[in-house]
Amino acid sequence: MRALVAFCLAGAAVNAADIDAGGFFLRWMLLGPYGQTGGDNPGCVAMERDYLTDGVVTEADVKPYPGLAINTNYAVAASTALLATPGNPQANPGGIPTWYDSQSPWDTIDFQGGAAYNTDVDYCMAYACIYVKNLTGAAIANCRALMSSDDGIQLIVGATSVWCNSVPRGVGEAGYTPDTSGLFTLPAGITRFMVKVFEGGGGWAFRLKLQDGAGAPLLGNRIALTTLPYGPCPTASTVTAFADAWSRRAVIQWEHPYSLVRIYEGGLKLAETSDYRAQELVVGDLDLGPHVLEFRANIGEGEPACAVVTKLVEVTPVWPADFQCAYDDLSGRILFTWRNIEPYYEILKIQENGVDVLGLSYGVDSAVLVAGAPGTYTFTLVAELAGYASGGIACTVEVAGPSPAFRRGDANADGVTNIADAVFALAYMFTQGAAPSCPDTADANDDGTLDISDVVAVLRYLFTGGSIPLPGAQVCGPDPTSDTLGRCVYTACD
Fold first, then answer.
1. Which of 87, 107, 76, 104 has its CA nearest to residue 33?
2. Fewer CB within 10 A of the terminal residue: the chain, N end or C end?
């Protein structure tokens, strides 16, 4: 059963009331106010600098939406600071520059009025941004923007500056547009319009509308405004998909925002999101094998998908992990352990140099192999499942051979256990004397450590009839217990 993953975000994207009868834009997203040092006539060179950058997101590539915060780095940006938080509670929560949606009841955006910042500041600037959607289905050539501002204004269409006027002036009466931009083409789809308005004192406002090559205003029958930065139709290069085998998921990512994204396989919808800020969808609980996924994206509300991009992902098994091997010199066997990720593998085996040495049952996570001659061995754990075969994971083990025979308590390895062994052990422990060639000989109580208790055990054996653990003090034999004392070299039994 596939898990369906969905995300939803409510929000109005297009509103017919956003453009008035004269073509003026009533709706903008606003950001600011930022301080600037150019006074009431900063000049276009200063106005065209980047006032919002955080060093990563810049004026050129930002895609505003309501609620997007810009952590402006004032050491990098042209702005000097974010001015005091305006009276409008929507603006800059927490004192961080934040884009917010503003709509004016008339053809002018008044930054000092209640619809905008509701504050009176001088020597500052602010951004206004909106996305213009061309509803005609074809590019509209030779467009112009008609504007008025108080004071200077710059207009950026897409990534191109099409107008700048640094001038101290008033915005004028309703409908007054003394500025006319250079020509530009309004392509099909969505285009970002960004305005920068500079204030030197007194009023602070602007108005803007668009007209076509014939001088007719672009009204709501040909364009619409949206605060959602919808992207172009997806292509194979703007959509990626990959399988997350560990969780049996497919992860689909895309570059541009859309009003709706849906993922299909074989006509079945697997996941969707209407969050225009999302750039990833996850489809879970996929079967092993290849999957042909369809990425369907919508631009705007209530429209069919503008394109379908097909992506192939393949979910492969996750192979065993943490394969380890260890040699037990007491039993002369090699112990293998590992961790199974899939519940059962159809084939699970251990190989040496490509040759099978152990075939394993379903679900096991350990195995034992009788060791061969002393030497270094490399083994590989191989698994197969659903027609897929692992490359194998390897472990290496050193086989030391059988444990040598020794006499316990004979720390100096002279063939007898006597007071000289106690003296030898004390010298090793406390005066940096020579180490025993076979540490197990000095471990007189067989507790796996070398300390004063071992000397006591030898003395008790010599003088009070105490016992010495196997193999004993008189008989040569291997160590019956495992420890970590190290390699034993003892020739007194030869």
1. 87
2. N
